[in-house]
Amino acid sequence: MKLISKFFNKKLPVINIIRMSGVISSGSRFPSSSHLSLEGLEKQIERAFEGKKVSGVAIVINSPGGSPVQSALISERILELSKKNNIPVFAFVEDVAASGGYWLACAADEIFVMPASIVGSIGVISAGFGFVDVIKKIGIERRVFSKGENKGMLDPFQPQNPDDVKLITDLQQEIHEQFKDWVSLRRGKKLNIETIKKEGIFEAKIFSGTKACEIGLADAIGELKQVMRNRFNDKVIFKEITGKKKLSQRLGFSASHYSKVIDYIEERIAFAKFGL
């Protein structure tokens, strides 16, 4: 019976699943972080496209965004392997796919959401603090030596410089255009200029999953297993592609408790923007 079962299983479609949950960032203070980067995900992505029986790759996304560079690197790797192996990619948004999270979703051929999922935020943001008055009040004299006109740009202990602000906003505009170009490339046929302007799609607005389907940011409402069974076969085989733990994690080594707390707080702040 086992041999018969194995024979029939070989004929059944296989859907490999990668879960991408967390803030998108190039690194973290401790190895067990849920931060998403190409370095941390590349092996999983490669394994997801391996095997002759793979009918599709499903990406489960729950991310408020983060680094545009890592978002682009991860997305390009997924797209590259999808084309190379002729395997379709399906994105399934859970709580949120905003900003860089939506950038990741656009690597898929189709995007599925839940009605209450939060989707969009196609924009760029930079934030910081100014401590000009604080340093004066506590009587500290700050000494800075540098070469290069812009080396001290956005120094939080100096008054805001209009030239610095222009440099940053110009950079933001450039990255925003890259984001818009990516969305237009991947979703272009499902978006139209009138809807983009009317709904403020490229103005960093966020939408419910239901609304995202109406305006073309997503394709349909649907849960992963149900959608894949309807698409391929009731007996489709689902395989979770998980990352391998680093040696330090297997041996029980980790960063300090304080570093973990800081990383957790940063991630919670990112999700809290969307009420999550």
Task: Give your account of this protein's structure.
There is one protein chain. By secondary structure, the chain is an alpha/beta fold. The protein folds into 2 domains: 2-121 and 205-272, 2-enoyl-CoA Hydratase, Chain A, domain 1; 125-187. It has 11 helices and 8 strands. Helix 3 links the parallel strand 2 (54-63) and strand 3 (89-98). Helix 2 (38-48) packs parallel to helix 3. The model is unreliable at 247-253 (pLDDT under 50).
Describe the structure in brief.
By secondary structure, the chain is an alpha/beta fold. It is built from eleven helices and eight strands.
H/E element order: HEHEHEHEEHHHEHEHEHH
Helical fraction? 40-55%
Strand tally is: 8
Question: What is the overall pLDDT average?
Answer: 83
- Give the biggest beta sheet: 8 strands, mixed
Number of domain modules:
2
Q: What descriptors fit this protein?
A:
276 residues, alpha/beta, 2-enoyl-CoA Hydratase, Chain A, domain 1, eight-stranded mixed beta sheet, elongated
Helices and strands, with pairings:
Blueprint: H1 2-11, E1 14-21, H2 38-48, E2 54-63, H3 68-85, E3 89-98, H4 100-105, E4 110-113, E5 118-120, H5 132-137, H6 162-187, H7 193-199, E6 206-208, H8 209-215, E7 220-221, H9 224-231, E8 237-240, H10 247-250, H11 257-272
Parallel strand pairs: 1-2, 1-8, 2-3, 3-4, 3-5, 4-7
Antiparallel strand pairs: 5-6
Helix pairs in contact: 2-3
